[in-house]
Amino acid sequence: MQLRPGLCQPLRGLLAPSALLWAAVALFVLPPAAGAQDAQSILQAAADRHQALSALCADFRQVVDNDILRQVTRSRGELCQAGSELFEMRFTDPAGDRVVADGEHIWIYLPSADPGQVFQGTLNGGGQFDLHRELLADPGERYVPTLQGGEEVDGRRTHVLALEPTGLSPFLRARVWVDASDHMVRKLEITEDEGFVRTVELSGLELNPRIPPERFRFEPPSGVQVIRR
Predict the structure, then answer these.
(1) How far apart, in Å, do the first and last CA atoms of the chain sit?
(2) What sign for the dihedral angle of Cα 193, 194, 196, 197?
(3) At 89, which CATH number?
(4) Is 71:78 a contact under the CB 8 Å cutoff?
């Protein structure tokens, strides 16, 4: 699905998510025992933790930095995900924007930019918004992790891991902030092509919530043109 860059900049490369996504951060120094094996162990723990979840909801703050256009876009809202193909990203800023994966289609509706159009694409079983599947699956195989120290995110102590792709990847590189206590991903930074760097910070995590089915449904508003790709 190809979308106009100007219209969909806040959602390019979304995960889930998508995406998601997303912040003042206090630094601290980890003990010097950090090495390649430590990074692998942290990534494995995060993968195990996320794989065990049936569903997840969280508040997000997202910053998209377009270096080419020298433009920064900020947004926030709530996201929910259940499995690989059910996802909703509901924006409160800009209010009314919404991204929904209903198991069959992906809907992108951005009335803040273009209230007269909604984009519909086919999921094709790709799990485009499954964070675990893309960044955490097969720890150490799809991405090589390097421990870069630690930071506090929303008052939580985290390990910062840099992830370098070992093969074909939708991202040039990524970083994830893994909670030192519960191994949940609290923040991620994705460097995409075309000069985009996306940072998503998560807070208020709800693990395995009971999500109403209507969260993953989308009905185009009356009078809105549906563009199918």
Answers:
(1) 5
(2) positive
(3) 2.50.20.10
(4) no
> Per-residue confidence at 31, pLDDT binned at 50, 70, 90?
very low
Q: Tell me the C-alpha distance between 149 and 180, whole Å.
A: 11
Segment 94-143, tens digit of pLDDT: 999 999 999 999 999 999 999 999 999 988 755 556 666 788 888 888 89
Number of domains in the chain: 1
Q: Are 47 and 137 in contact (CB under 8 A)?
A: yes
User: Residue 91's domain spans which residues?
Assistant: 5-22+25-228
| Tens-digit pLDDT profile for residues 34-47 | 444 599 999 999 99
Tokens representing 163?
A: 């992830």
Contact by Cβ (8 Å): 18, 117: no
Q: How far apart are CA 48 and CA 42, in angstroms?
A: 10
Q: Give backbone dihedrals phi and psi of 2, rounded to 5 degrees, phi first.
A: -105, 125
